[in-house]
Amino acid sequence: MAVHAALAEPEAAADPAQGAARLWRRLLRSPLTVTGLVITLAFLVLAVLAPWISPYDPSAVSDTTLAGPSGAHWLGTTQNGQDVLSQMLYGARASMAVGFGAAVLTTALSVLVGVTAGYLGGIGDEVLSLLANVFLVLPSLPLTIILAAYLPHSGSLGIILVITVTSWAWGARVLRAQTLSLRKRDFVEAARATGEPTWRIIVRDILPNQVAVIAASFLSTVTFAILTQASLAFLGLADVTQWSWGTILYWAQTGSALLTGAWWWFVPAGLAIAVVGTALALVNFGIDEFINPRLRQAGIGTKKAQRAQVTARRRPRVRKGAPAVRRPAAAPFTQDSTDVILDVRHLKVDYVGDGGGRTPAVDDVSFTLRRGEVLGIAGESGSGKSTLAYAITRLHKPPAEISHGEIHYTRPDGSTVDVLGLDDAELRDFRWEELSIVFQSAMHALNPVLRIGAQIEDVIVAHRPRMTAQERAARVVELLGIVGIPADRADSYPHELSGGMRQRAMIAVGLALDPEIIVMDEPTTALDVVIQRQIVEKIMELKDRLGFSVVFITHDLSLLIELSDTIAVMYGGRIVEQAAAEDFYRRPQHPYSRGLLASFPTLGGPRRELTGIPGSPPDLRRLPAGCAFAPRCPAAFDACTTRVPQLVPVPAPGGGTAQAACLLHEPGAPNGLTGEQSQSTDELATGEAR
Known about the structure:
- It is a multi-pass membrane protein; Peripheral membrane protein.
- Residues 666-690 are annotated as: Disordered.
- The chain has helices at 2-6, 16-28, 31-53, 84-120, 122-137, 140-150, 155-182, 186-193, 198-206, 211-234, 245-254, 257-260, 263-291, 300-314, 385-392, 424-430, 442-445, 452-463, 469-482, 499-510, 529-546, 557-563, 581-586, 591-597, 676-687, and strands at 340-352, 358-370, 374-378, 400-410, 416-418, 435-438, 517-521, 549-553, 566-571, 574-580, 648-651, 657-660.
- The chain has 690 residues and is of the alpha/beta class.
- Helix 8 (186-193) packs antiparallel against helix 9.
- It is elongated.
């Protein structure tokens, strides 16, 4: 209802005047920034108009020598009778051209080298970083003087090139460090998972998050270039026949203006350099607030209304009652289903060290996901859950490496896809079309400088290039409605949404192309229990409505029991138990599972002491011999320290079959999983209604 209410106004194109008005309002809220911009623009205008507004030729001599300011010469004259005001206006052209020209080239080179090296990595990063380091250790001022001395008659262009060569490395180093940090963020991983090309990820996700750094670097380079040009001209290392503020100072020093008291000859040029530097510093102070949406101080009373009005004008009208489902929902899932959609066999993922050593993060993991099923994966931190999720979606990066195993996906038409055999182009088509992922931290998985609607639309653009802008906008509104977010929130930034709304926005991104499988990597992390309940209910509602399958990964076993159809428990990189959720809750078949369940308090029944699990999860680099859980297991015996247990079928209390990797299930094993050891779990099950 909120979706259609926001779209009830007549369809109209976005008004550019409103965007310009918002821009000016943001500027006016920062008087220092406005002051700096006005001063800088004033100098630029004077520089451009110098040939038309200068009262005299700056090189023309006259009999009025060393005359102070007067009506005929507002800034006085030089010892040759030249008009200082005309020299200042013409000098602004050269000084501003050098400042902004050198800043443009320097910043462009810094962005190209820094972002490319930081994002691509590998040998290219090492070579470009080495080049930047070489220029960083070279003394810039002596190098500038030496290069300028060899280009005495090259004019402004030569000075620009000299400043660019000696100044780009610092900015490149900073941008590389920023890019190295950003490329590991979840929103970049999400963009890569959706199949966006590298250039688009850099332009849409990496660079917008570095605009403040780039802008600050640009402005500081302008100031540095103007000062450098003035210094070189003052030392006579530039072309002194070309008027600039530095040239004026050079001739004033040569003519002993300070000794003769002709202050009007050198003060205006020095003051102009100082004022421009101050103006650029004022702009720099406010640039982060102006660019960063989190720091903008919008009018709270009218902001939502303005955003809703803009959204209503920009979004196309959606017909009431339009279907939200692109494909028919599958039949309700039952434990008797044999319709396997994802088959993972003996999957092994290693982290390869510098010396070639391998750490098995996922070791010999096998499971099946059936159509319409919610498969819950639980375990402590470091058990391999997230690594498994990244392996399924082929999002793992070096040093992670799939060393063994198979992943097969079955389409609705019955055809099978070898996921590990897909090349880059095929993998790009597979992700989000057939399988998508919802990352665990929505605040990190959403790009902080892009609006929510734009981020959902990016997925559609990457896979549906032929869709019109109107169709994409309608789909964005539809997706927001599916997950229960009002349409006007499409123009909100991530920080303007609550934690629950951000997580639902991530689910909307995952649903953008109606995939058959959604991998949810701890989507309720850092949310309070009320919001967790809302997210779980929304996931179940959408699953029943849209018919997709879910791989749900979390630490919260109680949440998993309520949400899942089947539960797999991981420990030390392996699945140690897999069973229907009901059977798992009533009588877990592995000591580790029993310990996890015993760590949760009951809501009813007799009080009991929470036992927990002693010890810590194993270090995957130094796994103990035999069963990885043996050092913490209260039922371990001698064989547990020498043999690695395999998943074997175990009769479940509901009449079905579970799987457990425990030597206690072998014939003749001491202390089987009956009697006293399972009694506490039975009491837990009967004392608390699910």
